[in-house]
Amino acid sequence: MGQEILVNEVVNLKTNYDKKEMQLIRRELESYYQKKYGKEGKKRLRYDIEALSTPNVAKKGFLSNIFSRGDWKIGTQQLYNSVINTQRGRYLSASSAIQMTELDRYYLNKPFAEAVIVKESTGQIKYLVSEVPLSEVEKKQLNQIKELLTDELNVDFKKLGSSEKTVSYLKKQIQIIIKNYKLKVDATSLDKIAYYIVRDYVYFDKIDPLMKDPKIEDISCNGYGLPIFVWHQQYESIPTNVVFQAAEELDKFIVKLTYMTGRAISIAQPVVDASLPDQSRIQLTYEKEVTRRGSSFTIRKFRERPFTITDLITFNTLSPEMAAYFWYTIERQASVIVVGGTASGKTVTINMLSMFIKPTAKIVSIEDTPELQLPHENWLPSVVRTGFGVSGKISEISLYDLLKNAMRQRPEYIIVGEVRGAEAYTLVQAIATGHGGLATLHADSVEAAIHRLESEPMNIPRPLITTIDVVAVQSRVRLGDKSVRRIVSVSEIVGIDPLTKDILTNEIFKWDPRTDSFVYSGRSYVLEKLVKRHGVVFDAATKELENRKQLIQWMAENQVRDYKDVVEFIRSYYLDSAGVLERIRKGN
Length: 588
Ligand SMILES: Nc1ncnc2c1ncn2[C@@H]1O[C@H](COP(=O)(O)OP(=O)(O)OP(=O)(O)O)[C@@H](O)[C@H]1O
Ligand SMILES: [Mg+2]
Fold this sequence. Notes:
It contains 21 helices and 18 strands.
């Protein structure tokens, strides 16, 4: 068998191979390498496959020639993944033939699934999910039990309620099946088999270990045959060894995920933006309708414990001084719009800011997908409903409808998850009539934000825009080799220039990238306005700001990070500020 035939065989690339075909290709390659390199052949092949993922073209060598034609990316990825999968056991041991250093290892679902983070000789960091392996016998048993379960189970898992209930129900069913069909499964095998069944039926299938990793913030799949990428708190965006090999496998999974959100996805309705039962936000596309590489999904994981002011101070997203400023002004119903790019942390910031609102205030929030978590008892969260079904019989309830309705509830504060369209006008009107308002908006700067508010489809007249008090710009910025979130600028909207008719802004805080610290401009018009409106002596306001800054600093120094604790401190401060200050000065 000469190189030509081999090359032909591999170049004849389909976009997808089944397992058998993949094995065949590998065997062919192996025998070719063995002929060429003798004993070293297998090892060389692994090196070369490994090298395919390096950006360095020279290193890619022979194999990349094969794969440089046609749809090589999918071919190489698949080959690469098949090697990773079969070699995983060996990969993880220190004596691995492929140069990989283990950086980190921790349990995701003890003792069944582990995360292993490795650095390859190419410099690429990878996230490997390592799950308990099944023997051939166990694999057969797993499939058999799955089939029997599908035949015998006549339940809608969603109706069973909480996951724990479903899990114990399912485990019982597995035992019944084993007994009824007299299957020979020993206790350890049963545990492993039950792990996979529960993983696939109740939880998130292949990506379940990733969903269980609290260090993973986002999970994204850009198509079949491609590794799933995660955003890891420590290692940032890295590929994993989890892959949906075939288009059908991914499509099926997408349908299942969508079902979990209570929505439907189809060729007629190929894009869904929704939330999972655990409140994670998810975006899905179906088949090749809108995304070229087939179905795709992105999950932004829900945090059970929302980020608090202490967390954001610890990350240095903002300073205690800025936090005190927001607290003081928001308490007096100032309106704050947080702007920034995708995933810059806008929603997290407004959620954190809303914890500063007086515990007794009436708040209405309006969102596309439920993300906000507030401690307030008098909080009415509302979420839009998109019309589903082709006929559109169930009518849509938009942000605009919700906001109009919210105004009838006489809230003191209105929080809009993200303003995009007609609802912006109503929000700004509410702000103009004295309501407190918090919102996020997609824009990179104050100017861009104002421009967006003034243009289609929001069309807010300039005089109304000036009723917004504060615009904070949040960004994801690079700091050394890390990507961090910073509130890079806080500006007050002061008014309209009588001559130029431009909107006048006053940048009150600015992030200095050199020192990674925040600079205060020294004058706040919003503070002056609020003080005047509420008849407070300016010095008293300054003192109050200083006290709140101290409390926030104290919480950061003492790592009072938990949501409940932070909320409790804010609540007690509202009730008895002197008492709280006394306590922290005494150090308890
Ligand atoms: N200050 C922060 N420091 C570190 N991580 C953060 C910070 N804020 C948010 N994150 C993380 O970033 C991710 C995105 O945050 P968030 O949803 O607030 O962004 P966003 O700007 O609202 O995004 P989108 O434009 O999609 O609405 C979250 O997974 C969160 O865990
Ligand atoms: Mg958001």
